[in-house]
Design a protein that fits this description.
two-stranded antiparallel sheet, 5 helices, alpha/beta, 5-stranded parallel sheet
């Protein structure tokens, strides 16, 4: 896999720190963006293999961000894994997410889903 870049769009700074450490240990390049960043523009710029997108992203709604990503030719095929502490998996998957993780989740669950998502 040539592109091993993961883009993190997560508003919990502790979670960002933990995810960066975990993903780097697994050999991924990790770019974390501020919760109020323009996620679409960051995806265009960084060209990640996977976007890890929080459902509640600061002032932004993760589903709106997902809709925006899916509506642009340049980003529509980016793999997106969403996460939330709320039971919103069905809604996320119906809107075009490639995967969903219910918080809190185990590191092995994230790595397994990432590898599965990248392989498809």
């Amino acid at each position: 896999m040539s592109n091993k870049k993961i883009l993190l769009a997560e508003d919990d700074t502790t979670m960002v720190s933990l995810l960066k450490t975990l993903l780097k240990m697994e050999g991924f390049e990790v770019v974390a963006i501020h919760a109020d960043s323009n996620v679409l523009e960051e995806v265009k710029k960084e060209k990640p293999v996977v976007l890890l997108l929080d459902f509640h992203l600061g002032a932004q709604n993760g589903l709106d961000v997902l809709d925006e990503i899916r509506s642009h030719d340049e980003t529509r095929n980016v793999r997106v894994i969403m996460s939330s502490g709320a039971s919103v998996e069905e809604e996320c998957m119906n809107r075009g997410a490639n995967g969903f993780l219910m918080k809190p989740y185990m590191p092995d669950d994230l790595i397994s889903l990432l590898k599965q998502t990248i392989a498809t």
